[in-house]
Amino acid sequence: MVEDKVAVVTGGSRGMGREICRDLARRGFRVVVASRKAPACEELAEELVAEFGVEAIGVGAHVGHWADCDALIDRTLDTWGRIDVLVNNAGMSPLYGGLGAVGEDLFDKVIGVNLKGPFRLAVRAGEAMQRGDGGQIVNISSIAAVAPAPTELPYATAKAGLNALTLGLARAFGPTVRVNCVMPGMFRTDISKAWGEEMFAQASRVPAGRIGEASEIVGAVRYLTSEDSTYTTGAVLKVDGGATWAPA
């Protein structure tokens, strides 16, 4: 168990973010659940308090907007005076008809949520961690960063940038702040509801033979935010059932 430590999780109200929040609360962290929809965050925060006996708050924040990023960090520091863990989990990958159909608004929105926001949050949180007792930042990327498909190029580009950002931040904030990245493959979340039969067919061909469940990302984040990983920073950990290097 940890005492008085504070964790912030973006995209925290559902899917992988929800499972990460639950595991952090189970471990004794005070948890800040953040996503665009404040009521969903507040609802989960109440559940964490009731189930695990920890302190938790829900905060509405659109991480594609720097003002919201700053407000999220400021709210956390004003409430508890510290940040020990930041999990940059919020992400989006809108569907589009073809590359020529990708407009500037869509491109900017995808880059904003998947890369610009995590940059700002990590910088603000990392600076706060350096002023305190140190901490851990975990970026949630995607195997699209290393195996991009034509149907998700803006998203893949942003996640590739997030991988690079991870290493740069590890160098900038070491040695007291560790910065690492988890690179998931296909997971069953709200995003997967939009997948067609072809995507699920691809999942059956990976070495693990299936897509991942949201709870299966938790172990990687737990490792990177625990004392078991004190010599791990600047790492990108692939959790994809073997999909990235599997034959087509």
Automatic annotation (TrEMBL):
Keyword match Oxidoreductase: yes
Single GO molecular function: oxidoreductase activity
SUPFAM superfamilies reported in the protein's UniProt record: NAD(P)-binding Rossmann-fold domains
Signal peptide limits: none
Annotated ranges, domain Ketoreductase: 5-190
Pfam families reported in the protein's UniProt record: adh_short_C2
InterPro entries: KR_dom, NAD(P)-bd_dom_sf, Sc_DH/Rdtase_CS, SDR_fam
Record keywords, A-Z: Oxidoreductase
Entry's family note: Belongs to the short-chain dehydrogenases/reductases (SDR) family.
Protein name: Ketoreductase domain-containing protein
